[in-house]
Specification:
Blueprint lengths: L10 E5 L3 H13 L3 E5 L2 H10 L5 E4 L8 H6 L1
Length: 75
């Protein structure tokens, strides 16, 4: 059985270019006591993750400006 408690205190990177989706996702995650950082494109996500990888999970949109989410995830 799944429990929301598993998310408490987790550090999640959200890669999403749509501002409304960013706001909704951030509010939902913070309500679950998740630490959330948002980046709006694949290039910046790849760069951030190559410098520091202290995230427990990355939520990656597929359709992003520049490199798409699939390519960013592969890198």
């Amino acid at each position: 059985m799944y429990s929301d408690d598993i998310l408490i205190g987790k550090n999640i990177l959200v890669v999403e270019d749509n501002k409304i989706n960013q706001m909704v996702t951030k509010k939902m995650l913070e309500k679950k006591e998740v630490i959330c950082q948002i980046i709006d494109n694949g290039e910046d996500a790849v760069e951030l993750l190559s410098k520091e990888n202290n995230f427990d999970l990355v939520l990656m949109d597929v359709h992003l400006p520049g490199i798409n989410g699939t390519i960013a995830t592969q890198k």
